[in-house]
Amino acid sequence: MANLITLSRLLSVPIIYWLAITEYNVEAVLLYLLAAATDLLDGWVARRRREVSDLGKLLDPIADKALQIMVLVILVQTGKVPLWPVLALLAKEAAMILGGLLFLAKGTVVSARFSGKLASAILFPALAVSFVEPSVGKPLVYIGVTASILAGADYLIQAFYTLSGKRIAG
User: Fold this and answer.
1) CATH classification of 2-163, choosing from 1.10.3470, 1.10.3120, 3.30.160, 1.20.120?
2) Around Cβ 155, how many Cβ atoms within 10 Å?
3) Which of 5, 22, 30, 40 is the most buried (most CB within 10 A)?
């Protein structure tokens, strides 16, 4: 069930994009907010139903980032934010994917970190605010992207510790 919720978030990405580019902006924002809310729901369901899985650990961040990057692309296309936040987030995610593949090849999946959850908690609403009120949302997007990059560094540090057989708090 939890993985299906995560998958619904991933599948909402092209629908939200289509709604936004066809100027169904209210609908796009509402579907985005609903999809963003599934980020909280899938984790809760997974823990509650004891469905935490390696697939979920991989699928959840992919769905989050696909949703976040797609909304950033829409915001760039509509002139509401500059290109650099998209490029910064894409570069960070490319590094995370490459690192994740290396760890996966060694049979290791590193769980989500609090720093990543905090970054998403900042970035998800910042993107929604930017869609509606760019002058308010743009600085929040900058903070969210910065938090995401710092969370990526935290994740990679934890991944290296995990491979070495150690664990750090968080």
Assistant:
1) 1.20.120
2) 23
3) 5
